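pipeline/complex-builder :: batch 7 item 3
reading input block
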Amino acid sequence: MQSLRDIGSRYNDLQDAADELKAALRKCKNKQERGHLRQKLTDKKQELRRFKASLAGQELQAYKDYHMIRREIKRCEMLKRFDKTGSKVFRVINPVYIYMFPAAFHSVFFTLMPFIFMIVGAFFKLDLVDIKSSKFVKLWNFYMVLVRDDEFWRAFGNTFLFAVLTVFLLMVVTVLMSSWLSKNTKIHNIAQTMIFTPHISSMVAVGILWVLMLDPQGIINQILAFFGIKGPNWLMDSRTSLFSVALVTVWKSIGYYCLIIIAGLQSLPKDVYEAAKLDKAGKWTILRKITLPLLTPTLSFVFIMKFINSFKSFAAIDVMTQGGPQGSSMVLGYWIYNAGRVKFNYGFAMVGSIVLTIMVAACTALANKGFKKED
Amino acid sequence: MADIHLQNIVKIYGISKNQKKRRGIFSKEKELPAKRAVDDVTLTIPHGSFTVLVGPSGCGKTTMLRMIAGLEEITDGKIMMADIDITNLDPGDRGLAMVFQNYALYPHMTVRENIEFGLVNARIPRFEIKERVDHALDVVGLTEYAMRKPAKLSGGQRQRVALARAIAKYPECFLMDEPLSNLDAKLRSEMRTELIQLHEELKSTFIYVTHDQIEAMTMGTNIVVMNEGKIMQQGTPTEIHNDPNCVFVAQFVGDPGMNIVPAADYQVGFRPRDVEFDCADADDDHVILRCNVKSFENHGSEFLYQLDTPEKIFVKEMSKTQRPLTDMLTVRIHRKNLYVFGRDGKRIYVNEEVGKAYAEFKRHWQPV
């Protein structure tokens, strides 16, 4: 027993001496002395190695244990030092700024600056190729778009109609669907997955698929014909084109919003439902009087997100109708793209974007207020 | 009168397919081992009684209450209310009202709407609803809070709203699932007396679930002690306390429970307060214990000592003399205060065996 402890103390002595030499070496500047110290250090290390070689069996095990203990102690000391320097650094700089930086960078350079550029650019006749030849035209762009352009106002109206249509269609469908789907059985899980799949596929692919299906001779009209109904021309008809696109976007986003609403449903307190059962409430009463009011926060989130998303909708229109026929499905997003990237009237596009921004902001604020009032 | 009869009620968890548990994505679905939460219980709850189901956590008392309420499916057995079989009735049709542990108020409705909701669903005419709600609010003393929402009420007030919701339904039977466990100690004792008064006023059946034996003893007129899904003993508080039929009940009831000491083939028990202090004169009817004190609790009006023995033995002293803890403690127990149980925990009433156990106990504990 004593001999094992001796091994420990001898090992520690040698290691301490080696560490001291190392520290001295780090401090020392004199070249000659450094060489001297380095020689000493190698000697000590050799001694340690020889000491280890002289051990065997239980003694060697003891040596190894002492080695491990020493390493563990060193590691803890290092971590302590790390904590100390960490807290020192964070006392000077608030860590919030560090965490915030990536998001702040992104929002400044990709959102805020383009936004300012948009507002300034709306007063110029812009030339993006040779920016110096842009001319300041005061309110001419606004005049041209807001007063002289009929198509713009049509797009404005269409955007609004499109947003209201999609949001209400989506809300009704998702609430009904998710209140059915929010159970945890195998069939419900499979159904949830199936409903979610359109969300994974790209809007372009979905758009092309639906263009084929909504063709006057497409599968949907054929099915309708089977029942003796003469289907409309869907995308080709100026009366139904906007509605058809809205239908497709709703179909695509059902899965995503269903998921959100299901999450909301599952976080509702269970005992309230049990109390309702004891209060003789039927399924319809429970949905109307308990689920919907309790779900208001989730519903308001879905409402606002979908509203903003439908204001911005572009891909679906681009793939399926390109604003046609006769501008019947032209929405602001597509109008801006058309004015800027097709006709190269960047000034007009910027004016359109300003209008769109104001529209989104106003609608969001209104919706927020409306939902807050209900609480 | 509408007595409630439970006939051979069984509840087994883990056999229905919805109860399967899955851990991780790739592991197979494992079926939970079937567990009998309520095991062949037959019980009669007389009309107008304040029945308390009491037992340690996980003993199936809440499951039983929920089965009576209809919130839990019954695996086997029958529930009768008077002569009507209510086993498969909807919860709303059973004429019961339940008060939940965390109140389960509808957070988006005002107090009045909360109380009205059940009545409106029961298609009760509007003038009667108003009358009933006003009466219920009057009973719990919350009339001026009728237009508030639950979020703006304190815990005790929310509990009262839940009570009022139950009262307004004029139910055959009130079910209460640990309704006081979320309140602080002072409010709890207040609500306790109010519940007792309410029971006297309404004269309907109360079924009350709790794990707190003090609550059970103070409130109940009919106590059902449960353990591991089985009923251990049913009776009035006095019966349960003074005449326990098994070791479990003896140890569960009382604060602290009965001291149980093994003696040969028997187990002998006595209540901590059924001892006399500082009497050393032995005779045939007394057993004397001399022991060191292990720990000591000051309860203000009484002192609780734990004796330094392998079994946990507590003794309670009601006098106000505080004795030095270093001294040996001498206590005397009268023979009539001893309870004798068998090895299996069942109470033994046969006189000869009781005498044998007493002799064993005395031989073991008599100071040398």
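note: The interface with chain B takes residues 184-185, 269, 271-272, 274-282, 285, 289-290, 293-294, 296 of chain A (CB under 8 Å).
queue -> next item
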